[in-house]
Structure formats: structure tokens, C-alpha cells
Amino acid sequence: MINRQNKLLVDEYLAYRLRFDQLDPKSVRLERSLAFHYLTWTGEQPFKNAPKCDVSLTEYVRDYKGSGGQALSQHYRRKIIGSARTFFTWLTIHKQGFRSITTAWLSTLKMRVIKDEFDDDSTVSLDEILRIARAPVASLVQERVRAGTVFLFLSGMRISAFVSLPLKALDLNGLEVRQSPDLGVRTKNKKKAVTYLINLEELFDVIKAWDKKVRALLPPEGFWFAPISSLTGEIDPKALTIGEHRSAAFHKNLVDWLAIHEIEYHSPHDFRRGHANYLFDNSKDMNDLEAVRENLMHESLVTTESYARQRKIQRKARILQMSNVEVSAPQVNMQSEILNRLTSLAQAVEMLRSQ
């Protein structure tokens, strides 16, 4: 059983988030699904008694099993804990009678991250996307999803933004994608940015061919992931609006097409991770890493780094490469050069002092 007053407080909190934090409706729906867990965790107990629960929220999400006996992923557990911490903090600020929700207790709402050695596999490598790009297509639906997967890898876009991308928001010649809600692009939290495509010739040829096809049939307001008529099997030039669940259509097409070619399944988000991995592998300095962060529309580089987990084979190659480096004369000379420069600098400072 769920405490009725707790449910009303969650409803009020979500209304606040929608109005004042300006979350988009999709994010609010996610917050509601997360709130289900701390509502279930407290059960009939009012939220003010949460610190006294016999089982902590961390223990609850760790041991939770769905209807099919499936445990929650680490990522989703962290989302629940983070959402609960934000919600209970909101209670202490905006509601009376929650003195029991102390800063000390809020600090216990955290989830230890256990690195999974298979986490590196949740991405798409360059070899994999090339194999996908080279796979033959037997229908317009297959051609569309092939172009879509390549586009996700080259752009790093979120799937919700990609399937709502109008032709007028894409400049292939300039490699520019204008991810703007003003143009109808469904970005996360309604962010706005110009992002750029990776220019890899063989992959780029796939999306250029699709782009040419859809622009010949659709107006600038038409969608790059073009709607296909269920009656004719052709691109529908009159379909200038899309539903809320359009990304589900992409996902279904992707599952079917990869299965036909016996290619390992990857989620749409894995192609975004592949974009991050490819760029991280080719970054030379912090400026490059910041460019990757901006292209993924992340607020923090920490988030970007969590996306760009190098695959084990890449990491092994790098370690072996570094293992084979020998200390050479140029390295010794470099140390001498540094020492000479430091000596010169010290002499210059001493001269300035004497003046």
C-alpha cells in the first residue's frame, strides 16, 4: 500500500518541477516512474518517517526485483537515489513538518558504483558501424534505419532528438546540426546547440545518399527520419507531424534489421556512446575533450567521460604500445632542456630582484 498523502506530495513536487524547473513532459514522466520506488519503499509510512525505515532506500533499490524477477540496473538505481535526494530536499525547503529529514540523513542517499567489466561493451566501435553501413538493404525501411544508425554514430544525437530532426535543421555540407526546440527538435530539457558530424567518408556517403532521397520528396519541415506510409511502403510527403513514441519505431526497425544480418544488437544510445568513444580516442588535449562535451550537449565533462568508456581491446593496445616505449636520448635531452630553462628563469628573476 502507498500512503495517500505521500502520493499527493509527489504530485505537487512534479508539478513544481514542470513549472519552475521547466522540465519537459518526458522528463517529468521519468521522474514519476522514479518516484514510484520511494513511494513503494516508504509504503504506508509518511515521508517524515523515512529516516526510521527498517530498510534503507539504498538497500531497497539494491534488492528490488520486477514482475519478471529482473533486478534494477546500476544506472537506474542511481537515478532513483538521485531523484529521492532531490525530492526530500524539496520537502525540507517547501513543506513544514519535515525536520526529521536532516542534512545528515540526506547524505546517506547514495549508491556505490561497482564497475562492471562488461560496461565497455555498451558502445559501438568503428569496425561495428562500418559493418552496419556496409550491410545490404532490401526495403526502404531498412535503408532508413541503416542511415539512421550511421547518423547517430556520426552525430552523437539522442534518439528523441534524432527522430524529430527536420531537414531544415541539418546542413550536411557544413556538417552542422541545429538541435533547437524552436525547430521542433526534441532535445533533453529543451537545450539548444549547434553540433557537428564526424566526417568519415564511407559512413558519410550512407547518410548523403539518404539525405538526397528525402530532400527530393519532402519540404524543409519534413523529417530526416522520414515517415513511411504503411499503405504504399513509400516516404509519405504529407506526414509533417510525429507522435510521442516515434523513437519506438526506430528501435523496432533496428532490432529487426540487425537480426536479419546477424549483427549484435545495440541500442540507439550505444551509437551515441560510440560517437563519444571515437572522438575520445582521437583527442589530443583538454580542448579536444571540451569539444566532445559540447558536441554531446553535456553540462559536465564527467558525464562525457562516463559515456566514453574505452573498449578493452583498445585499452590493451594502448598499454602494450606504452610498454614498448624505451627511454631514448631525445627524452634525456628534453629533461636537460627543461633544466636549462628553469636555470635561465631563476637567473632572470634574480636580475630583476637586484634591480
Question: Can you put this structure into words, describing what you see?
Answer:
With 355 residues, this protein is mostly helical. It has two domains: 4-106, Orthogonal Bundle (DNA polymerase, domain 1); 126-307, Intergrase catalytic core (hpI Integrase, Chain A, Orthogonal Bundle), CATH 1.10.443. The protein is built from 15 helices and three strands. The chain has helices at residues 4-19, 25-42, 57-63, 74-94, 103-106, 126-134, 140-155, 159-162, 201-215, 246-260, 268-281, 286-295, 301-307, 312-323, 329-354, and strands at residues 170-171, 176-179, 193-196. The protein has a three-stranded antiparallel sheet, with no helix packed on it. A hairpin with a 4-residue loop joins strand 1 and strand 2 (176-179). Helix 7 packs across helix 10 and helix 7 packs across helix 11. It is globular. The model is unreliable at 327-332 (pLDDT under 50).
Number of helical segments? 15
The first-level CATH class of the largest domain is given as Mainly Alpha
Task: Find the CATH superfamily of the largest domain.
Answer: Intergrase catalytic core
**Overall SS class:** mainly alpha
